Amino acid sequence: MKILGIETSCDETAAAVVEDGVRILSNQVASQVEIHARYGGVVPEVASRQHILAIIPIIEQVMAKASWGDLDGIAVTIGPGLAGSLLVGVNVAKAITLARGLPITGVNHLEGHIYANWLIDRSPGVTPVFPLVCLIVSGGHSDLVLMRGHGDYVVLGRTRDDAAGEAFDKAARILGLGYPGGPAIQEAAKNGTASLQLPRAWLKGTNDFSFSGVKTALLRLVEGGMVLSRADAAASFQQAVVDVLVTKAVAVAKEFRVKQILLAGGVASNELLRKWLVENSPIPVLVPEPALCTDNAAMIAACGYYRFQAGKIDGLDLDVVPGLKLA
Ligand code: KG4
Ligand code: ZN
Questions:
Q1: pTM of this prediction?
Q2: How far is the CA of 285 from the centre of ligand 1 (A)?
Q3: Ligand nearest to the CA of 137
Q4: Is pLDDT above 80 for 124?
Q5: Strand-pair category, 104-108 with 23-31
Q6: Which of 162, 267, 292 to mutate to test the pocket of ligand 1 (most atoms within 8 A of CB)?
Q7: pLDDT of residue 123
Q8: Cα–Cα separations (whole angstroms), residue 257 to 208, 251, 260, 280
């Protein structure tokens, strides 16, 4: 079964064709990062306009490697995300559905991030096995989710303020490292040591996260005129965030006696997070390759495959849901 995936929830226009939810036949992302970088963050109106310019060329690019006649369905992100951006993808997907007579399914972007874990080799021990815990860490979310089967989610914990990616972006701005902050902090940290004592919000007794405190502590140090090496500050901040993410993910996975821990979302491409989670978890850890952690349409097509398998077909009244929840 071949699915065309379409993703336009934020600042990447993406399309992909995936076979049976696991094999990527083609996967393209048109990034708007350089356009938004000069504003220090995503400008929603600019993002929608860029999606309109990029969506048809990107679909033509992925369809150069697949034939329209071979497609079995369309999967498109309906939320969460920016309304104007989501509308571009959903309307193009509906137009294709109508023109080609293909079934359509609307995908939750966060669910898509989780399904990036299915886009890897199907050798034994590598495929996700239920029940599992997934740590979704992106620009808008830091969620710990128990997954008992396809499409079956229990949110065990979430951030109470900033998401992990948002915290990386804000810390990078404080340190003058540019946008997007995650990769900038990671690179700067390579030349430093985690010598600053930054606070960790453990929120004991809960599975929730809070990252605004560590960000504010960094801001106070910078504003207080303390002589800081940017590299040391970046390394200290990265370590403080990763420490909490890894410790809480492992604790919840043990508590619920799951078979695996999955990493997902843009922050899952962070090298320290990947390394520490693997090193500190007694439970097997699955991590998609970095390019499949950040926004892409292959993960949407993979998720769409499992939705079609479960008979979840939408009608042409499919609409965007900017505040869509996972469960
Ligand atoms: O999943 P994603 O591509 O988009 C959303 O759904 O939000 O995540 C984007 C977030 C940004 O905040 C970005 O700074 C962060 O992921 N990110 C990273 C890294 N690469 C991207 N954070 C830490 N380390 C990275 N290497
Ligand atoms: Zn995302």
A1: 0.97
A2: 19
A3: 1
A4: no
A5: unpaired
A6: 267
A7: 59
A8: 19, 10, 9, 16
